[in-house]
Structure formats: structure tokens, C-alpha cells
Amino acid sequence: MTPTPCALCKRGQLAPGSATVTVSRGEGTVIIKGVPADVCDNCGEYYLAGDIAKRVYSVADAALLSGCEVEIRRFAA
């Protein structure tokens, strides 16, 4: 399988890893740690698969709708 180049820096290669995703809306911020992602070995940019992104935003939306100002969570596999 050919490595995927990073769309941002164009120099690094993507490899499976994990990322910390921050979602901010209005006055609230949700930080989700340990999210599975493809991570660039050069610049650190991360890319989420569609199903993972949906789960991350679902968790973040629920926390923000509950009125959180800042919430930090670990990604549940």
C-alpha cells in the first residue's frame, strides 16, 4: 500500500495514530483525547475517518447542548 501524502504540508506521510480534537462553538469548548486518526509524520496534522468524525461531533454536540463551558473527554472506542 502506497503511503498517503499530507494534504497540508505536502511533505509528510500519513500513518495511523491518535489526535486530540478540540471543538469550540459559542461559549463552549470540548476537548476529546485519544481520537483514532491518520497523522502526518512531518507537520502533525490529523485526518479523521468519516465514522470517527461523526462520533466526535456527536459527543461534542451533546456536551455543548448540555451547557458545558469546557469539557475534556477520552475517546471511547
Overview features:
single chain, 77 residues, alpha+beta, Ubiquitin-like (UB roll), 4-stranded mixed sheet, 1 helix, 21% helix, elongated
Overview of this protein structure:
Strands 1, 2, 3 and 4 form a four-stranded mixed sheet that branches. The protein has a single domain (14-74), classed as Ubiquitin-like (UB roll) (Roll), CATH 3.10.20.860. It has one helix at residues 50-65; strands spanning 14-25, 28-40, 46-47, 70-74. The protein is built from one helix and four strands. β1 and β2 (28-40) form a beta hairpin. The two termini are 25 Å apart. Helix content is 21%, strand content 42%. It is α+β, with helices and mostly antiparallel strands and 77 residues long.
Could you provide a short overview of the structure?
The chain has one helix at 50-65; strands spanning 14-25, 28-40, 46-47, 70-74. By secondary structure, the protein is of the alpha+beta class.
CATH top level class name: Alpha Beta
| Total number of strands | 4
What's the overall geometry? Answer: elongated
Mean pLDDT: 95
Q: Which CATH-level-2 architecture? A: Roll
Low-confidence runs of at least 5 consecutive residues: none
Distance between the termini: 25 Å
* CATH T-level topology: Ubiquitin-like (UB roll)
- Whole-number tally of structural domains: 1
Task: Give me the secondary-structure topology.
Elements: E1 14-25, E2 28-40, E3 46-47, H1 50-65, E4 70-74
Parallel strand pairs: 2-4
Antiparallel strand pairs: 1-2, 2-3
